[in-house]
Amino acid sequence: MSSWINENGPLLFLALLDGTVTAFVLALIALGLSLVFGVMRIVNIAHGEFFMLGAVFSWFAFDLTNDPLWGFLLALVIAPALVGGIAVFTDRFILRKVKYHPESTIVATIGLLYVIQSVTLMVFGPEARAVEAPLYFRIQFPWFGYSGYKLIVAGMSALCLLGVWLLMIRSKLGLYMRATQQDIEIAKTYGVPTQKIYAAVFALGGGLAALAGVLVVPIRQADHLMGLEPLLLSFIVVIIGGLGSIRGTIVAAFIIGISDGIISVFYEPTLAKMLATLFVAMVLVLKPSGLYGEEVA
Amino acid sequence: MRKKSLVYSLFFHVGILLLLFVLQFILPTYHHSSVSKIMVLASYAVAYNFLLGYTGLMSLGHAMFFAAGMYAAGLGIYYLELSALGGLLFGAGFTLVMSLIFGLFALRTSGVSFLIVTLMFGQTFYLSILYFNEFTFGQDGFSMAKHLGKLVIFNKEYLYSNPDIRYNFALILLTAYLLITTFIMFSPVGRILIAIRENESRTELLGYNVFYYKLFALVLSGTFSGIAGATHALLFSYVGTTFAEIHHSISPILWTLLGGAGTVIGPFIGTGIMFYLVDFISGITSNYQLVVGVVLILMIIWFPMGIMGTLRQKWMKWLP
C-alpha cells in the first residue's frame, strides 16, 4: 500500500487538483442549467453553446485588446452580457412562443444549438484558437509544477457560486425566483412579474455558462464544437444532484469532476465518460429525483 | 367511418408507393440514388414516429438502435462471416433484445427524464463504440464491400450496392414499415397507444397496463430502427460512428416533426424535403446545419403539426 502511494501519490494529487478545478467550472455551468430547469421547468439543450460563446467572445476580446489581462477583464464583462442578451431574445421570441412546453422547448433549443454553432463556424472559423492566460505563474509542488491560473479559475468560480447563492437567498430577485419555482400561479397572484423572472433566469443561466467559458478558455482552446461535452456533463451533474436543487448541483459537480479527474488520469477519458453517462442514466431510472431533488413529475 | 378511412388511406399510401416504384424507371441517376437513400432514412423516421407520433414518447437516443442494427449486421458479416440476410436478421435480433432491455429501464421514467435517459444511453452506446475500437474500428468505421456476398435473383448475381437492387430493397423496407404502421394504427393496440399519447393516466384508469403497451411501442420502434440501420449497412457498404452520434438521433425528430408526427406518411415526406433542402444548401455553403436549426425553430413555433398533420386537420380527415 505504502509503495503504491509513493509511486502513484503525486499522480493522485495531480488528479485531485485537476478534478477540483473541473468541478468548480462544471458547477458553474451546471448551476445555470439547474436554475433554468428549476424555475422555468424547461431543459435548455443550447446551454453548452452559451458556454462556447463565452469562450469565443473571450478570444475576440483578446484579439481586440491584444493584451491578455485587459482582454480577460473585458471578456468577463461583455461575454456574460452578450450571452445574457441572446438568452433574453431567445426567451422572448422562441420560448414564450411555444409556451414553455417541455418537449417543444427541447426541439426549439436543439434548433438554437445548430444556429449558434453554425453562425460561430461562419464568423469564427473551424479551427481551434488559443487565448493567453491573463496571469501566468507556476506553483511548485515537490513533485511537479502546477499552473497558477488553474487555481485562479477555481477561486473565481467559487466566488461566482457564492454570489449566485447570495442572490438567491438575500435579494428580491432571488426571492421572486424561488417563489416562481415553488408555485408559479400563487407567485403571480402575489404580484411577482413571472414573465420577467423567466427572462432574468434564462439570462442568468446563460451568463453563468458564458462566464465559465471565459474562465476556461486559457486552459483549453476555443472552437465551435466545444459546447457538447460540457452540456452532457452538466446534464449528468444536474440529474445526479436532483433537477432544480442548487445544493445538489454543487455536490454532484464535485463528485463528477473529481471522479472524472481520477478516472481520466489512471484510465482512459472515454471510459470515464462512458461510466459517467451510464451511471447517470441509472440514477434517473432508479431514483428519478436525484440525490437532493424534490419529487418532480 | 373507420372502414372508409382505412380504404382511403390504403389507396393513398399504396398510390405513393406505386409512384415510387414507377419513379425508378424515370429518375436520372443522381436522383435515383438520392431517393434510395431517402427511403432507407425515411424507414428509420417511420420507426421513430411510431414512438414519438403515436405513443407520445420523445427519444433523444434513437441513433443507438440504428447504429446497433448497423454494427450488429456489419460486424456479424465481418467477423462471423454471416451472409447478408444472416447479418440483417442478426441486426434485427440484436436490436430487439437491446430495445427490450433498454425499455425495461428507460420506461420507468417519463417526460423530460425519459428524454435525458435516452440521450445518456445513446451517448454511452456511442462512447462504447469508440472505446472498443479494436473490435469496432472506432472513429474510422469500416467498409463492407469485400465481405458482402452477392445477391442471386433468377440465377443472375447482383451486388448489394447495385443501384436497382438498392432502390428496390429500400422500397420494400419502406413499404413494409408503412403498411405495418397503418395496420397497427387501425387495430385496437394502435388505438390504445394513441390513448396513451393523449392521456396516459386516463388510459391507465380504464384498466390498460400502460407500461406493456409503451414497451411494445419502444421495442417495435427500436427494432425497426435497427433493421433500417442494418439495411443501410448492406446497401451502402459502410459502417461508421457518424450514425451513432447525437445528430443522428436528432435527425428523425426533425424529419418526423416536419412531415407531421402521428401521420403514417409524414416522416417520409419530411425526410425527402430535408434531404433535398440540405442537398440544395450544400451546393451553396457547406454550413447546412444553420438551415436545419432555423427550420427546427420556425417549425416548432408556427407549424407544430407538420405538413401532413396540417393537411389532415384541414382536408384529409381520414389520414391515419
Describe the structure in your own words.
Chain A is mostly helical and 297 residues long. Chain A has 2 domains: 28-225, no CATH class; 227-297. Chain A is built from 11 helices and 2 strands. Chain A has helices at residues 2-40, 47-65, 68-95, 102-124, 148-170, 172-182, 184-189, 194-216, 228-241, 246-266, 269-286; strands at residues 138-140, 145-147. In chain A, 50% of the residues are buried. The model of chain A has no long low-confidence stretch (mean pLDDT 86). By secondary structure, chain B is mostly helical. Chain B has one domain (2-245). Helices cover 75% and strands 3% of the residues of chain B. In chain B, the strands form 2 sheets. Chain B has a two-stranded antiparallel ribbon with strand order 1-4. A two-stranded antiparallel sheet of chain B has the order 2-3. The longest helix of chain B is centred in the C-terminal third of the chain and has 27 residues, at 210-236. The A-B interface holds A 43, 94, 97-98, 102-104, 106-108, 110-119, 121-122, 228, 232, 235-236, 239, 243, 268, 270-271, 273-274, 277-278, 280-282, 284-286, 288, 297 and B 58, 60, 105-106, 108-109, 111-113, 115-117, 119-121, 123-124, 127-128, 130-131, 246, 250, 253, 257, 287, 289-290, 292-297, 300-301, 304.
